[in-house]
Amino acid sequence: MMFPLSVTFPVAALAALLEAACGYPPALLAAIGHPVMWIGALIEKLDTALNRPEFSEQKRRWMGVLALTLIVGVPLWITGAILGLGYQILPAPLMLGVQAVATCTLVAQKSLWEHVRAVGIALRQNGLAGGRLAVAQIVGRDTATLDEAGIVRAALESLAENFSDGIVAPLLWAAIFGLPGAVFYKAVNTADSMIGHLAPRHAAFGWAAAKLDDAVNLPASRLAAFCLILAAPAERRTAAREAVRRDAPRHRSPNAGWPEAAMAGVLRLRLAGPRLYKDVRVDDAWMGDGTPDATVEDLDKGLVLYRRACLILRGGLLIGALLFMITA
């Protein structure tokens, strides 16, 4: 089901405003779970059924393509069916609101703020032990030996990357395609997070998910870096642009380096760099040319930058919505 931009931009703008104000209500999470959890349950079933250890690497790759088709196709089919029925029985303006409410469940402005802010609170109240425990909730790396600088860098990297793929990307896809666009993106992104890594079990099976996620996140990562640069103090924008230009292409991810380099450039830090994942050292390039000795005060500054970037994104969506509605 295709919608004009005079519908999709208002959907994205309203979704961004609603989610920023309300987040995902805990009572709703307890009652019915979360859409990402539903997609995750489908991925787990397909992983068990199609990713068999006796299959060859080539067959696993083809099974991964089939799984990805279902991971994306099933949620899209359900979404299309519900929207089709809704537009038959409800007026179009009301359905625009329905799309916005559903789309806001796929955005994470408020929860990302809360999770990253919790790292700073834990560091201040409970020291390194508390900080390590809090940051372990939002990153996949080993946190047991991180010092304060390592904890703060990990939290800021998560803040920057998730600003791109947890906020900018679903809203961008919603702005173009409405709720189906956000559902498509979230299905791909969830698949990548669950099976799109290089662990022996998923190196072949998750290949298609990883490649498609790289493609669908490409425009959002650039837009996220742009929002972070705009949100920076005027005197730091040139340094942030230079950090993105110089360092983003050196990141092992084609997308994560853009918001991470922008964040590093604004805060005068070095982010990313070498780290441990399950006792395996990953020698990533550094983003930014500042100090690696990040402090909890830098985390505070990063959160301020993040909130400003979210405000800029919401403002852009609102302006787009008004323009497309006026010219429709």
From TrEMBL:
Domain of life: Bacteria
InterPro entries: Cobalamin_biosynth_CobD/CbiB
Transmembrane segments annotated in the record for this chain: 30-50, 62-87, 167-185, 309-327
Keywords associated with the record: Cell membrane, Cobalamin biosynthesis, Membrane, Transmembrane, Transmembrane helix
Molecular function per GO: ABC-type vitamin B12 transporter activity; threonine-phosphate decarboxylase activity
Pfam families referenced in this protein's UniProt entry, alphabetically: CobD_Cbib
GO BP, one annotated term: cobalamin biosynthetic process
Topology with respect to the bilayer: Multi-pass membrane protein
Localization (cell): Cell membrane
The keyword Membrane is annotated on this UniProt entry: yes
GO cellular component: a single term: plasma membrane
Function recorded in the entry: Converts cobyric acid to cobinamide by the addition of aminopropanol on the F carboxylic group.
Family: Belongs to the CobD/CbiB family.
This protein's name: Cobalamin biosynthesis protein CobD
